[in-house]
Amino acid sequence: MNPPQASTRIDAATRLECRICWHVYDPALGDEVEQIPPGTPFLDLPAHWRCPQCDAEQDKFLPLTDR
Ligand SMILES: [Zn+2]
């Protein structure tokens, strides 16, 4: 089911999980801590956005795949 290339595909609805603390960023919910409005895709987060729980940078997040 996975695409052959390991590159991460992130679209507007993709949730991403912090691999440090397992916090999940859900675009449908946004992020109250950073005042990100619901409906904000991960790719549209401001560059300074970091994990609200552990302060990890955005490249520490891995996409979650729904099945
Ligand atoms: Zn984290």
Task: Indicate the topology.
Elements lengths: L15 E3 L5 E2 L35 E3 L4
Antiparallel strand pairs: 1-2, 1-3
This protein binds zinc ion (ZN).
The site of zinc ion (ZN) has 8 residues, from loops.
Account of the protein in words:
The model has no long low-confidence stretch (mean pLDDT 90). 0% of the residues lie in helices and 12% in strands. The protein has 67 residues and is mostly loops. Bound molecules: zinc ion. Residues 18, 20-21, 23, 51, 53-54, 56 line the site of zinc ion.
Poorly predicted runs are: none
SS strand fraction: 5-15%
Strand arrangement, major sheet: 2-1-3
**Residue-averaged pLDDT, rounded?**
90
Q: What's the β-strand tally? A: 3
Coarse morphology: globular
Structural class: little secondary structure
What percent of the residues sit in helical stretches (DSSP H or I)?
Answer: under 10%
What is the C-alpha radius of gyration, as a whole number of Å?
A: 12 Å
Order of helices and strands: EEE
Number of helices: 0
Which small molecules are bound? zinc ion
